[in-house]
Amino acid sequence: MSSNGHIAVPTNHHAWQDIFTGAQMLFVAFGALVLVPLLTGLNPNVALFTAGLGTLIFQLTTKGKVPVFLASSFAFIAPISYGVAQWGIPATLGGIVAAGFVFMLFALLVKINGNHVIARILPPVVTGPIIMVIGLSLAPVAVGMAMGSDLQLPIVNYKLLIISMSSLVTTLIFAIWAKGFFKLIPIIAGIAVGYILSCLFGIVDFQSVINAPWFTVPDFTFPEFKWQAVLYMIPIVIAPTIEHVGDIMAISSVTGKDYTKNPGLQRTLLGDGLATSAAGFLGGPPCITYAEVIGAVTLTRNFKTRVMTWAAVWAILMSFIGKVGAFLASIPSVVMGGIMVLLFGSIASVGINILIKHKVDLSVSRNMCIVSLVLVFGIGGMVFNFGSYVLEGISLCGILAIILNLILPQPKAQA
Q1: 74 or 198: whose pLDDT is higher?
Q2: 248, 115 in Cβ contact below 8 A?
């Protein structure tokens, strides 16, 4: 809409510019987008397809008003990995579909009770320690991969450490000292350096990339519904819900529009839920709002939602290129291990920051009890067995934190 009230007709120049900018947005999100499937055993081509599809669903749900791209949160890495190991990929996908319905439930609660209902159900004293557990519970996995302990390769350990630490250091350098656009791609930079070193040390198998077809239909996998997997995945949504609210508030402050009111937090949560369930039905990781692309929007000051539409189209088109998935699968896990050391530590730091930012007073007994029990249960590996159902890890922590917050008395206000 132009200033004089007439609808502005885009020129071919503007259309091509939007197409190119959409590709750039996908490039920014690409490293983090494919990291989740590569670490959890899901198909990266399917993840590309579902990220594109999820973004289009989100745009329809929010009436095309919010310029964001959707892909998987790192909060889901540990739960998906555990679910795949325990029940297999189809059952884990059933849990992801169910997780989407939890987003939809939160959307309904917001519609009925207003935006403050999320803060009432999930205050900082609940979300902070849960997010810390998500990061810290993965620490042994990250360190093991960085040391190459999961690889059976004829290569001495110090070479594997050179690869993983080079990936880590590169990611650190780009995250801290890079300027402009390069500050947005620390994961891609870390993967690139680690991959090059892996090639030099001879631990990359190019044959699978050579043999892969240029065009192929993504290997969609459909869900099975096992109640154990569903009940395990449902509490995981707590952390991404808080992440979502933060992302929507961040993009609102950048664009100068309050998206929590228009189109409304209920619509953005619904968009996340529909996109996540759709991804689960096809074999992809959950699709939610994406902090990396919000950073790109902040840098470029490009607030057009059609740019995100083109990013989604690029993702869908790329998902049909067989060699993309084969190339991603050829990246040695030791490369990812170096990046995971920083990544999972940063997740734990976000949880600490939530407690600090909201001034959660740990000298108050109820707060100290909630944080302490969640951390020890989560990191210590507490397990509750209920027949064939096992409650442990992040799910146990989520349920425990919510129950404690509801039943422990609030401190009396100072007179």
Answers
A1: 198
A2: no
How many domains is the chain built from?
1
Q: Domain for residue 410, yes or no?
A: no
Tell me whether residue 411 is in a domain: no
CB within 8 Å of 371: residues ≥ 6 apart:
125, 128, 129, 355, 360, 362
| Residue 333 pLDDT class (50, 70, 90 cuts) | confident
Note whether residue 7 is domain-resident.
no
* CA angle centred on 114, ends 113 and 116, rounded to 5°: 105
pLDDT band at 144, cuts 50/70/90?
A: confident
3-state secondary structure of 258: coil
Q: Three-state DSSP class for 215?
A: strand
> Minimal CA–CA distance to 180: which of 298, 332, 312?
298
Residue type present at position 212: A
Task: Give the structural domain span for 54.
Answer: 12-405
CA-CA distances (angstroms) from residue 291 to 38, 71, 352? 19, 10, 18
User: Token pair of 130, please?
Assistant: 């849960």
| 5 is a domain residue | no
Q: Give the three-class secondary structure for 68.
A: coil
Pick from 227, 299, 274: nearest CA to 106: 274
What's the rounded Cα separation, in Å, for the pair 144 and 204?
19
Residue 37's identity, in one-letter code, is P
Quickly count helices (H) and strands (E) in the chain. 19, 4
For residue 123, cis peptide bond before it (omega within 30 degrees of 0): no
Other beta carbons within 10 Å of 225: 13
Question: Which pTM was predicted?
Answer: 0.76
Percent of the chain with pLDDT strictly greater than 70: 89
> Residue 301 — pLDDT band, cuts 50, 70, 90?
low
Asked if 133 and 379 touch (Cβ cutoff 8 Å), the reply is yes
Query: By C-alpha distance, which of 399, 394, 299, 302 is closest to 351?
Result: 394
Return the bridge partners of 71, or none: 288
For residues 275-286, give the mean pLDDT.
94
